[in-house]
Design goal:
Largest sheet: 4 strands, mixed
Oligomer: single chain
Number of helices: 23
Helix content: 40-55%
Strand content: 5-15%
Shape: extended
Number of domains: 4
Radius of gyration: 32 Å
Distance between the termini: 78 Å
Length: 495
């Protein structure tokens, strides 16, 4: 095929750097906005924190006499003579941007804006501290650290011994044998919390039972160990009668042993992570209050400090313009200052637009779910998807999704993520549309009230929901049950 040239017209949509910056800022929750602002302050010396002040009088008279044509700032040296100095030193000097006004922020007598920072030891640090108790030489300590580093957040050692041996050879330049690694694994398995460094759930539970047996051996513990060692598959499938018959024990002894197993921790590392998560501060992005039946929305701006263009950079433009020596270095300095001031303006405008977009989106959600914010009743939540809010606000669906991601709202009935208010819809028997969250709530209540020895199957749950007017398929019930982290009926059976 011969090569040819031709002219073609295309319509392409490209995002400007400012639009990309805004999209990234929309995804940042209030808790991390302060870090993003600090990063920008470090990268751009033309950006400062503080309340905007009037430009010094001594410079006002100077820049008023300067004039130049408007320019498209592309940063090239040839555009030096086209830089409009007044554009960089006069705009916004006497006015405060509306994103710093009190309507969207706390009152002056509210709590200070500092965020409490909590210091804590991580799960990895806890294990490393326990390594110092062992009498290890330098080589063994390095191997043990490699093993500890391979333990995941749940407390399990997911890498097998040959893989750890290879890691030591390539990463630490240590030739270790599998026996040496396994010996150190056995030592680490005695650390707290019990069950740590196990390679499977069965081993994790056995480690915990054996530690209990060392302290105070009982028949119940010995039977529990026998069940896990020999009949773990039957135990996981709740085949209690088969276990009882195989061990030739009475039902009461087997029941007590199984109850002991169920009280063990299947995720020993997760307990520490859960404690840390429960103590983590959630900083809400929005506040909704009920003022005599009228909902009032406010935006949390505590982590967004006042931003302004550096007065020193504005003054530097004046001095460079007044200078008689117009050499290349001076031109490069003026263009550098101009670019930094432009970047600072873009960032301030992006912060302003971010907060306006957040308020617009949250206000639409508040109006859509007004009944919930007034009563706190989860059953009053209306079916709502991203498209509903996008149509109300005139924003794109992707923009609404970015706003809803990792954002929290504090209400009189608790603090909720914005995604909590989004759910699909389904029709009841009378044609009324209800939220799928309502169906899940009823499903969870049915499971919570079922008999321990005879849990409800998915077919039975489907029948009960149909009696209540919710006609949904059994596979849909199974899907909702899995989303609620509710196991199947056989695994919910209790003795």
């Amino acid at each position: 095929m011969a090569l040819s040239q031709g002219l073609h017209q295309k319509l392409l949509q490209k995002l400007s750097p400012q639009q990309i910056q805004l999209m990234k800022l929309l995804q940042v929750p209030t808790a991390y906005l302060e870090e993003r602002v600090k990063q920008e302050l470090e990268e751009n010396p033309a950006l400062e924190t503080g309340v905007e002040e009037d430009f010094k009088d001594e410079y006002k008279d100077e820049y008023e006499s300067l004039s130049a044509d408007d320019t498209d700032p592309d940063g090239s040296e040839e555009d030096y003579d086209q830089v409009d100095i007044r554009e960089y030193v006069s705009e916004s000097d006497d006015e405060v941007p509306d994103y710093r006004t009190k309507e969207d922020t706390y009152a002056a007598n509210d709590q200070p804006s500092e965020i409490p920072v909590r210091s804590e030891s991580s799960f990895y640090d806890l294990l490393i501290q326990q390594l110092s108790v062992l009498n290890l030489n330098e080589r063994q300590h390095i191997i043990a650290e490699q093993i500890v580093g391979s333990i995941d957040e749940d407390g399990y050692l997911r890498r097998d011994t040959p893989a750890i041996v290879n890691d030591l050879a390539f990463l630490q330049n240590i030739e270790a044998s599998e026996e040496e690694v396994n010996e150190l694994i056995d030592m680490i398995q005695q650390f707290d919390p019990p069950g740590i460094c196990a390679r499977s759930l069965q081993e994790c539970l056995l480690i915990q039972l054996r530690q209990k047996s060392k302290k105070r051996p009982t028949k119940k513990i010995n039977v529990a160990i026998a069940i896990l060692e020999t009949y773990f598959d039957e135990f996981s499938r709740k085949h209690i009668e088969k276990i009882q018959k195989s061990l030739d024990l009475d039902a009461d002894t087997v029941r007590q042993s199984i109850q002991l197993i169920t009280k063990l921790n299947p995720k020993p590392g997760g307990a520490i992570t859960a404690d840390a998560m429960s103590e983590t501060y959630i900083i809400p992005d929005f506040f909704i209050s009920n003022n005599n039946g009228i909902l009032e929305l406010s935006l949390n701006n505590k982590n967004a400090p006042d931003l302004r263009i550096s007065e020193d950079y504005k003054a530097m433009l004046i001095h460079y313009e007044k200078g008689t020596k117009k050499d290349k270095r001076q031109k490069e300095a003026v263009l550098f200052i101009k670019q930094k001031i432009d970047a600072a303006r873009w960032f301030i405008d992006a912060i302003k637009q971010r907060q306006n977009t957040l308020l617009l989106t949250m206000n639409a959600i508040m109006e859509y779910q007004q009944s919930f914010f007034l009563t706190g009743d989860e059953m009053s939540l209306r079916p709502m998807i991203l498209k509903d809010i996008a149509e109300r606000t005139g924003l794109d669906i992707s923009t609404v999704s970015r706003v809803a991601n990792s954002k929290f709202v504090q209400t009189e009935f608790g603090t909720h993520p914005l995604k909590y208010f989004f759910s699909e819809s389904m029709s009841k028997e009378g044609g009324e549309e209800v939220s799928t969250r309502e169906v899940k709530k009823i499903l969870a209540d049915l499971v919570a009230g079922e008999p321990n020895d005879q849990p409800l199957s998915d077919d039975q749950l489907t029948a009960l929901l149909k009696e209540a007017g919710y006609h949904i398929a059994r596979r849909t019930v199974a899907k909702y049950r899995e989303q609620l982290n509710i196991p199947v009926a056989r695994l919910r059976k209790k003795l």
